[in-house]
Amino acid sequence: MKKRGRGIACTYFGMGNTAKANPSSAFVEVCEDGTAIVRCGASDLGQGSDTALRQIAAHTLGIDAERVTMVSNDTMVAPEAGVTSASRQTYVSGNAVRIASEQAREFLLKEAAEGLGYDAVDLEARDGVIFLKERPDAKITIEEICGRLRAKGVLVAGAGTFTPPTPEALDPETGLGIPYGAYSYATQIAEVEVDTETGEVTVLSLTAAQDVGRAINPMAIEGQIEGGVAQGVGYALMEEVVVEDGVIVNPSFSNLLLPTALDVPPIQSIIVEVPEPTGPFGAKGTGEPPTCPTAAAIINAIYDAVGVLITSTPVTAEKIYMALKKKQGKEE
Amino acid sequence: MRWETYRVTKSIAEVFECTDHFQGKAKVIAGGTDLVVQLLERGQTAGLALLDISAIPEMRGIEIGDDRKWITVGAATTMTELAQSEIIARYGRALGMGASCMGSPQIRNMATIGGNVMSAQPAGDGSIPLIALGAEARVVSPKGEKWLAVEKLFVDVGKSSVPSEQIVTHFRFKPHAETATSSIQRLAKRRAFTLPTLLVAAAVRLDEEKRSFEDVRIAIGPVARTPWLAREAADGLRGSPVSHEAIQKASVEARLGASPRDSIRGGADYRKAMVEVLVRRAVTECVERLGVKL
Amino acid sequence: MSPRKIRLNVNGIVNEITVSEDTLLLDALREHLGLTGAKRGCGKGECGACTVLIDDSPVMSCIYPAIKAEGRSVVTIEGIGDDEKVLHPLQRQFVEKGAVQCGFCTPGLILSSKALLDRNARPNELEIRTAISGNLCRCTGYTKVVEAIGAAAGELRGEAASSKRREPASGAIGRSLTRIDSLGKVTGKAVFTDDMTLPRMLFAGVLRSPHPSARIVSIDRAAALSHPGIRAVLTAEDIPGSNRFGIIVKDQPYLAVDRVRFVGEAIAVVAAETKELVQEGLDKIRVSYEALPAVFDPWEAMKADAPKVHEGGNIQHHRKIRKGNIEEGLARADIVIEKTFSSQTVEHAYIEPEAALAHMDQGQMVVYCCSQAPHYYRNEIAAMLAFPISKVRIIRLATGGGFGGKIELSAQPYAALCSYITGKPVKYVFTREESVFTSTKRHAFDMHYKFGATNDGRLTAAHVTIVSNGGAYASYGPAVLTRSATMAIGPYECPNVHVDAYEVYTNYPIGGAMRGFGAPQMSPCHEAIIDEIGRRCGLSPIEVRRRNMLRPGSSTTTDQILEHGVGALETLERTSERAWRSSGKEEI
User: Fold this and answer.
1) Quick one: pLDDT band at residue C582, thresholds 50, 70, 90?
2) Which residues of A touch B190 (CB under 8 A)?
C-alpha cells in the first residue's frame, strides 16, 4: 500500500563565521570609458558570487553589469575576502564591494556635480548616467564623466573592507552574546509517498522558501536553493559514509549514493525578501540555509504518512520497514 | 600496466587463436564495465591479453526463429538493445525490464548480456531474468559447443563455471506463449545507477483458460552466493488456481527458503522479508498483465 | 609494452595517435588530443563526468579502452560546439536557464541530453531525468538542468521560447544575469586544475597510513629514492617551515612525524616523472608502525580511560549555552517531550576531486588549484615553506564544487613542497578514493533534546545535548560546534535554554565544514518535537510554529535581540500557502 504525507520544517541560519571577525576586502577601478573592474578574492565555485558581486558594483556605480569585469581567483590581484563558506560572500564581500564602489563613485559624483552645477548629494547614478534626483533630465553620462576625469589626470578607484557587526566572542560560560550580524530563515514542505510494505519513500514534491533579504540575482538564488535541497534529500534518505574500525568501506560513488535526477523531484523555490539593513542593498546569504530543513520536512512527512518517527538519518526503507513492523507488533 | 594487449577480434575463430597464443593469459571482454573497473583497481597485471568480442557480428542481435521455438540473443548484445527491443518486450519481458534498470544509460550502452552473466554476480540485472525465463547459454570451445542452463554458469560470487578458454556466444529461451509473461521487481537504495538490494524475476504461464498456473519460474538475488531459483515456491504454484492465496503461499515459501546475509545494501532480515513482498508483486503483476482479475 | 598507433575519429576529424594497449579513451582525448572537456570524476564509470558519445550513444570514457574506439565516431563536448558565438541549443539553454554552476558535470550532461534529443524530440520529464540519471550533479539539484533540456527540445522543434522572467526596469540588482563563466563550462573550455599542464611537469602522490592509530617507528626511503623516475621522496624533516595546519586549530601535520591518528593520514610524498611511477615509488617506501589503541566512538572517547588521540585530551571543545533558568522552565511546562536522534557521517562528494599544480616562478611559489579559501592556502603554504606571504600566489582555477570540503588544504601543500624541492612544476590530483578517505566530512552528531511547552503550544524550556564526532583533527569542528549550539533549538523563541555541545577527538575521519554546519543534523530533532507539541496541543504544524517563531524584537538562543531582517514568518506563510492547503490540509 502507498500512503502519502506532508511535513514542514523551519530553520534559521546565521550569516558569516560565528562570533568572530571574518572580513572581506575589495578594490574597484573605473576605467576612462566608464567600464569597471572589481577585484575581490571571494571564491566562486559556481554558486555565482562573481556575478552577484558584479551586480552589486554595477548598481552602486550606476552602470550596466555587462560593463563590469570581476577578478576573484588570483591572490596576487584580488585582496582577501575570507572563505567561501558560512553563506557569507553575498553579505560580507558584497558589502566590501559596495563600499569600494561607493568610494569610486565619489569621484564620479563630484565631477558630475561640478559639471551640472549641483551638490553631489543631490545626484544619483543609475543605468549609465548621473542625474539630479529631483529632475532626472539634468544628467550626464558616466562615460563622459570618466573621460573628463582622465583628462584632468584623476584616476577613479575605491577600496572597501567589511566584517559583520558581531562585536565579541560568545561568553565562554553562558554562550550568550551576538554570534551573527544577520540571519537567514527557511521553511520547506515535503510531500512524500511511503510504500508500507517495503518502506521505500518517494519524495513527490518539495517547496522551499528562503528569506534572502534582497535577491541580487534571483536565478542564481533559485539554483542555490534547488542544489541545497537536493543535498538535503540525499542526506535525508540515502547518503552515508560507512566506517568500520576507522576505515571508510564505501569510498565510491556507487556506494556513497548521491541523489540522481530520478531521486529528486522538481523543486519549487520561493524567494522571500525582508530587507537586511546591514547587507548590501538589503541582501544576505543563500548558500547553506536550503540544506538545513529538508531532512526534517521529509521525516515529518513520513510520520504524517505512516505514523512512525525515524530518529536517525539517513532514513532508509529498511528503517521505515522495521519501525512499521514494530508499530504493528505493538498494535496487535 | 593494467593489461598488456588489447585485441578487437572479428570472429570466434580468432578468439580461439588468441586464447591459444596467449596461453591462459587471455580474457574475453565485451563492454568491459565490470572487467575494466576490476583491472583498474587491481593495478599491475603482467602479460594479460584482453580479447574484445563486442564487434563479432554473429554474437550480436536478437532474433525470433521462423519456427518460433526460440528467442536467440547474441551474447554481445548491449543492455540498451535489450531494453529497447520489441521482440524482447513481447516474448521475454523480464529481460527487457531488467536490462533497463541496470546501471545508467551510459553503462547500458556499453554492457552486454554476456558480460553480465559472465561476471557471475548473484543479482545480475540480466542474469536473474534470463534464469527466470529458463534460458540456456551456448558455450563454445575449439572442440565444439553445448547449451547449458544459465543457472549452471554460476559457481560463486564472481566465479563463472565457464573456463577462460571457452566463450558464451548466445542465449536462447522459449518465447512467451499467449498465456505467458514475465516481470521483475527491484528494490534498491537509489532510483538509478545502483546495485539491487533485492531483485526478483518471475516467469508465469497460465493454462488456456487462465484459471491455473501451468508453469512458473522465480529467480532471486542476492540471497546466496549465486542467483537463486525459488524452486519450492514455483513448484507449489504449478497446478494451483490463480488466486491471491496461492500467490501469497508461494511468496512465503520463497521467503522461508531464502537466506540472504547482511550487506551494505540491506540487512538480512529486511531482505528476507522483502523476498515475500517482491515475489508476490512480481507474480501478481504477471497475472494481471495476462488480464486476470485477482 | 610497445606503443600502439591508432586512428580515432573524434568530432569528425580522424586523428592518428600513439597510445599504450591499456590507454583509456578519456586519457586519449585529454592527454593526446587536448580535449579536456570530458572529466575524470571517479575513474570507475560511476559519475558520468567523462561521458562522450560513441556512434551517437553516451558511454563512460574513463572505463572505455581507447583501442576499442577505433573505427567508431567519437563526439565530445568540443564537437557539440566550442565557439561561444555559435552554441548548440542545449548549450545556450543551459546558460540561459542557470543550469550551470560549477560546470564539472556539464559537458557530460549536455552529451547525454543530446543523445536523448537526437532520438526523442518531445521527451517528457521522466524521459529527461532517465536520460541524465547517469550524470551525477552535486550543485544544481537537477531542476534547472531539466528545464534547460526541455527548453532546448522546444528550440529544436522550432517553437518560440516560453515565458521569460520579469526583470527590473532599471539598475543591476534583481536581474537574473547569466554567469560569464557558464560559457566556458558548456563548451568544455573552462580550465579545471587537472586540465592544465606545464612543461616538464612531475606528478606527486602521498603515502598514507593504513592504521587509525599508530606510532611511526621508522621510515625507509632508500628503495624509493633509487627507483628510476622518482625525483623526490619527502617526509616531515624536508619541510622548511611549519609542519602544522588547520583552519582554526593548527593541530594537523602535513606529513606525520611520529604518530598517525586516522586511516589516510599523510606520511610521505613522492614526486615522479609519470603518473604511473608515482604508485611504484610509494610502494617502495618502507614504514614500520606500532599499532596503538584506537577509539572511534565519541562517547567512548570522552571516558577518562579512553586512548588519547591528542595529548590535551579528547574533548576538543565544549560549548555551553545557559539562558534563563532551565529547571524553572521545565517545571513551568505543561508538556515535556524528550527525544534522542543520531545523524550519519556525510561526504561532500563534489564531482571534481582535489587537485593542484605548483611551480616556482621567479622566486614565487605559484599554485593553481581548486579552492574555497585561496588566501588561507596562500598563508599556510607560505608558513610551510618559510616564505614571505607575498612570495606565494594561489590561482584558483574553475572549481568543481566544494560545499565546505575544499576549505581545508588537500593536494596543494604537497604539490608545492615537491615543486620547491625539485624545482619543477608538480601536479597532484586525488583519485576519488583518496578524496573520500582524506577530506573532511560532515560531523556525525548524537543529540538528546528535551523541550517544555505550555498547553497553548509555547516553548518554555529547551535542553539540548550534542556529542559531535570530530575525528582525528579539529579542522572546522569548533566552529561547527559553536554554531550548532547557537542554532540548536531552531528559529523559535524560548526563554530558558540549556545547551551542552561537545566536540570529541577520535581516530575517525575528520569532521569539518559541510553545507549547513550542524543545522541539517539538528533540524530533524527540533522540528519533530515542535510537530509533537502541536499535536498534543491541538495545533496544526503551521500554527505551533507561528506561535513560537522568531520575530523582530525576539530574543534568540544566545539572548540576542533581533531587530530587523526577520523573514521567518513570511517564509512560513508563503510556503504553507503554496504547498500545504493544496493537499487538502485545510487548517493553517
Assistant:
1) low
2) 238, 257, 259-260, 263
A77 close to B (CB below 8 A): no
Q: Report, as residue numbers or ranges, the catalytic residues of A.
A: 288
Planar angle of CA C115, B82, B230, nearest 5 degrees: 135
How would you classify the pairing of strands C51-54 and C73-75?
antiparallel
Binary contact (A210, C341; C-beta < 8 A): no
Q: Which structural domains are found in chain C, ordered by start?
A: 4-73 (3.10.20.30), 314-343+441-581 (3.30.365.10)
Contacts of B35 (CB under 8 A, 6+ apart): B27, B29, B50, B115, B119
Query: Does A163 contact B at CB distance below 8 Å?
Result: no
Residue C26 CA to residue C43 CA, distance in Å, equals 9
| Cell digits of residue C311 | 595529548
How many whole angstroms separate alpha carbon A32 and alpha carbon A98? 20
Only one residue has cell 585561496, namely C374
ipTM value of the model? Answer: 0.96
Mean of pLDDT values over C519-541: 98
Q: What average pLDDT does range A100-109 have in this prediction?
A: 96
Q: Say which of B2, B104, B110 has its CB closest to residue C64.
A: B110
Do residues B218 and B238 touch, judged by C-beta distance below 8 A? no
In C20-71, where do the E strands start and end? 51-54, 57-60
The answer to whether the beta carbons of residues A91 and A182 sit under 8 Å apart is yes
Question: Chain-centre distance of CA C221, in angstroms?
Answer: 33
Chain A residues inside the 8 Å CB shell of C565: 182-183, 211, 213, 274-279, 282, 284
Q: Encode pLDDT of B174-219 as tens digits.
A: 999 999 999 999 999 999 999 999 999 999 999 999 999 999 999 9
Which residues are CB-contacts of A82 (< 8 A; sequence separation ≥ 6)? A17, A22, A23, A24, A42, A88, A89, A92, A93, C373, C375
- For chain A, the average pLDDT equals 95
Class of domain A2-14+181-331: alpha beta
What is the model's pLDDT at position B164?
Answer: 84
Q: What are phi and psi of A84, to 5 degrees?
A: -80, 95
Q: What cell was used for A266?
A: 522538481
Domains present along chain B, CATH in parentheses: 5-52 (3.30.43), 57-173 (3.30.465.10), 180-289 (3.30.390.50)
Of C21, C45, C58, the CB nearest to B37: C45
Using CB atoms within 10 A of its CB, is residue A45 exposed (0-12), middle (13-18) or buried (19+)? buried
Task: Measure the CA angle with vertex B6, ends B5 and B10; round to 5°.
Answer: 130
Which residue ranges make up each domain of chain A?
A: 2-14+181-331, 24-162
* C-alpha closest to that of C519 among A86, A195, B49: A86
Domains A2-14+181-331 and A24-162 fall in the same CATH topology: yes
**Is A249 in Cβ contact with B190 (below 8 Å)?**
no
Name, in order, each residue with C-beta under 8 angstroms of B187's C-beta and a sequence gap of 6 or more. A198, A200, A317, B196, B197, B198, B199, B266, B274, B278
* Separation in Å, CA C502 to CA A132, B165, C265, C469: 58, 61, 24, 9
- The confidence band for C69, taking pLDDT boundaries of 50, 70 and 90, is very high
Write phi, then psi, for B13 (nearest 5 degrees): -60, -40
Q: How many Å apart are CA C521 and CA B14, to the nearest integer?
A: 59
Residue B76 DSSP one-character state: T
User: Is some CB atom of chain B closer than 8 A to the CB atom of A257?
Assistant: yes
Tell me if C21 and B5 make a contact (CB, 8 A cut-off).
yes
Give the three cell numbers for residue A55. Answer: 551586480
Using alpha carbons, list the distances in angstroms from residue C183 to C31, C88, C94. 23, 12, 9
A24-162 is a CATH 1.10.10.10 domain: no
All residues of chain A having their beta carbon less than 8 Å from the beta carbon of residue C564 are 275-277
Q: Is the pTM of this model over 0.90?
A: yes
